[in-house]
Amino acid sequence: MKDEQNITELRREIWSWVKKSGLSKRVFFSVPINRLVYFSPKGLKHSISKHHGYPELELMLVLQLPKILVDAYYVGFNPNNRGDLSIAGVHDFYNIVVYEAKIYEIWLKVKETRDKVFYYDHGIIRELE
After folding, report:
1. Per-residue DSSP letters for the chain?
2. Which residues, at least 6 apart from 16, have a Cβ–Cβ distance to it below 8 Å?
3. pTM of the entire predicted model
4. Nearest-angstrom CA–CA distance, 4 and 18
């Protein structure tokens, strides 16, 4: 695993790639929910800046987010109970990735607004043993 200085630099490089690639302005079709899913700058920034145990892997996965989402298994829908009246609920997706000879499960969250707009929110990673 890389040290914190290298992770900080990797974050900068990934965010630069996101801006240059136009990922934050793109839309991808999700077959399980039969909807277009938007990748917003806010959701991508969250994915790049927040890490929960696998910083290098999480950053590298940002480069693969559209493919991971498109190929993911649809788990289901959870209605919003957090008080944000603009959000109808969250769709959960599941996928598995292999990184440096280890297997990880990826849980992706896609928010659905009351206006039926779908935004990638964030993902959760856990190493499988």
Report:
1. ---HHHHHHHHHHHHHHHHHHTGGG-EEEETTTTEEEE--HHHHHHHHH--SS-HHHHHHHHTTHHHHHHTPEEEEEEE--SS-TTEEEEEEEEEEEEETTEEEEEEEEEEEETTS-EEEEEEEEEE--
2. none
3. 0.79
4. 21
What pLDDT, in 10s, does the model give residues 9-21?
Answer: 888 888 888 888 8
Give the structural domain span for 72: 4-127
Tokens describing residue 122: 């964030």
Beta-sheet pairing, 118-127 with 102-113: antiparallel
Supply 54's token pair. Answer: 């696998």
pLDDT digits (tens, 9 = 90+) for 72-104: 999 999 998 777 889 999 999 999 999 889 999
Nearest residue to 69 via CA among 14, 23, 39, 108:
108
